[in-house]
Amino acid sequence: MALKPLIAANWKMNGNRELVSTVTEAVASLSAAVDVLVCPPATLLPVFKAQRNFALGGQDVSAAQAGAYTGQLSVALLKEASASYCLVGHSERRQYQFESDSLIAQKVAAAIAGGITPVLCIGETLAERQQEKTEQVLAKQLAAVYASQPELLSKSVIAYEPIWAIGTGESATPEQAQLTHAFIRAELSRYDAEAATQLRILYGGSVNAANSAALFAQPDINGALVGGASLKPDEFVQICLSAKD
Q1: In the beta sheet, which residues pair with residue 7?
Q2: Active-site residues (predicted)?
Q3: pTM for this predicted structure
Q4: Are strands 55-58 and 85-88 parallel, antiparallel or unpaired?
Q5: Which residue has the higher pLDDT, 116 or 2?
Q6: Which residues, in sequence order, are bridge partners of residue 118?
Q7: Where are the alpha helices (DSSP H) in 42-117?
């Protein structure tokens, strides 16, 4: 993991003011050797203090700049709430909000145009893995965003989340994850070889304090997108520390 690691917390539809306070206090002890990102529900973004040693992000972003889009948040609104990152294309939004590859590509472009960093989430289902379609699925998801917009790659972060591992307690082995991350980097080099070498590719899918160090030891795993464990401040800090090591 030669690139500076990024550990991102996705709180999903969880959290409150107390968690904001405890996470802020816990993360304050971390050094600058690791970049930390917290993506809480949007209503909690303004609760975080301006003085902190980590970045904030949205869990989604609109492809539109403004207008009659009830319930959506534009890049400008996220920036107003101090967000400098946003998740895009998380599997739960692809599944429950039926987000298409085309819409996700628009969101990545909108985020970068507005000055925030998109964390593009990609991943395969269990059925697709069992049918040995993992690389085919990931290549399609990446091509939808970068084949026609290669200039966006240098300003992006990728999060590989095998859908079968999210919230299940199951995780890809470090070796499995490394093979997939290496494929992702090689695939992206087709669009911008230089950017692909500098791109941070995060692993997500039941990352916890017990498995994080082995994952971070892999050369193409540059951090993690952490779900359930990010709601436990002490464990989240342990994950961050294992990335630094």
Answers
A1: 36, 224
A2: 90 (electrophile), 161 (proton acceptor)
A3: 0.96
A4: parallel
A5: 116
A6: 86
A7: 75-80, 91-96, 101-114
Asked if residues 60 and 87 have their Cβ atoms less than 8 Å apart, the reply is yes
Distance between CA atoms of residues 183 and 131, nearest Å: 17
Question: Residues 77, 27: contact at Cβ < 8 Å?
Answer: no
- Are 18 and 129 in contact, with CB atoms under 8 Å apart? no
11 is in an annotated binding site: yes
Question: What confidence tens digit (pLDDT) does each residue in 182-198 have?
Answer: 999 999 999 999 999 99
- Residue 12 marked as a ligand binder: yes
Domain covering 33-242 in this structure, CATH number: 3.20.20.70
The verdict on whether residue 82 carries a ligand-binding annotation is: no
Whole-number Å distance between alpha carbons of 238 and 216: 13
Rg, the chain, Cα only:
17
Count CB-CB contacts under 10 A for residue 241.
18
Write out the catalytic residue numbers: 90, 161
| 107 assigned to a ligand binding site | no
N- to C-terminal Cα separation, the chain: 10
pLDDT exceeds cutoff 60 at 120: yes
SS3 label, residue 162: coil
Amino acid at 13: M
Q: List pLDDT tens digits, range 67-117.
A: 999 999 999 999 999 999 999 999 999 999 999 999 999 999 999 999 999
Separation in Å, CA 119 to CA 37, 89, 160, 206, 238: 11, 8, 10, 18, 22
